[in-house]
Specification:
The chain is an all-beta fold. It has one helix and 31 strands. The protein has a single domain (5-442), classed as Neuraminidase, CATH 2.120.10.
Length: 443
Amino acid sequence: MKRPVLLQTNSGLLFPFRPLPRRAVLRGGLAGLASAMAGRLLPGCDSTPMTDAGTDTRPLPTDAPSDTMMGDAGTYFFPPRDMPERPALVSRIADIGPLGDPDANGIRLPAGFTSRVIARTGELVAPSTYEWHRFPDGGATFATMDGGWIYTSNSEFPITGGVGAVRFDSGGVITAAHGILMNTSVNCAGGPTPWGTWLSCEEVARGQVYECDPWGERAPQTRPALGVFKHEAVTVDTVRNHLYLSEDEGSGNFYRFVPAGMNEYGYPDLTRGELQVASVASDGAVLWLPVPDPQFTAGTPTRMQVAEATIFRGGEGLWYQNGMVYLSTKGDDRIWAYDILGERIDVLYDGDAMTDPPLRGVDNLTMSCCGDVLVAEDGGTMQVVAILPDASLKPLLQVTGQEGSEITGPAFDPSGTRLYFSSQRGGDGGITYEVSGPFHAPA
């Protein structure tokens, strides 16, 4: 029998939490995801004038920062973009074969897959004049009206970090690259929003969340209502309009943001609301408690303000899909599955309970169309591994010859056949890759 997981609260209380059997977790979570994400991911909702490329043609609001790359605080909202529907897909990840020998880029791939380098730190991303940033980390893709897409990538570099973006045409050819946020610090992960923005998170003690325009046409905005702490990732519950946030601290918390209402465009108002923290009972039931000083204006750090808050050891990746939120915690090599309607959290993968875990240093997360959870390793053996709906593990790729680095920013293009990711400290400061192959097929 698997040993119970010990959960700790800020008050120091330890109590056992016994993970459900995998089949039970899957019945409530992964197995129910097979029909998810078949429709629109990034819908447009208003009548904002757009160009053929889906670009907002209105001028910046009068309260927008004059320097669009500084990430200054503001209050305006981003009009939702007129995004194309993502195609209906089925996952082929369960059919992928074993990894082969390293290719010319030093990446072990299954048969039928290929890799290419799309950017290197310190080099221009052709044909643009944008120099790729140091320590590329969390990322996401955004579909464009011309049939292409944009891949955003954080810079986990102190003081002069930020976010860069690469634009692709419908054939996957790079057409442009640009910065969308500058002069922030240690931008680690974050998350995409359904209205077409990228939330970039600072992994520092008084870190903020910045809402950014992947197109680079509108000024980024600081969102302090999402809390001031050592942020890692964020994901949006597209049904209930709540946001979930992770904290990369050994004594970190798992947060939920409940907006006070909707903004003028009909999506969650990220400037007002209640930041809450998870308190987990011994049976996995979750109670959300308000954080009294989420902006850390007094002397007590945000994560220490609620004595009943459950400690999550090194919160990392987050992903929402079909009523479930998936969370990785690197401090104990666990993947958690939070059932929103059932208000309970269970352990999906527990590397801490294994003598020789096949997946180590769990970090950034993304998901296939249909319930496969892709986990990037921070260290470990430098792999991206999928947890399939039956809870079995499937290695998808492995970067070789770059010990001391980590895999970051996994994200699929709209077709689901290209996977983007970075080796954060590969080469001289980071390499960003594209792996192409039959991860998905049209439904």
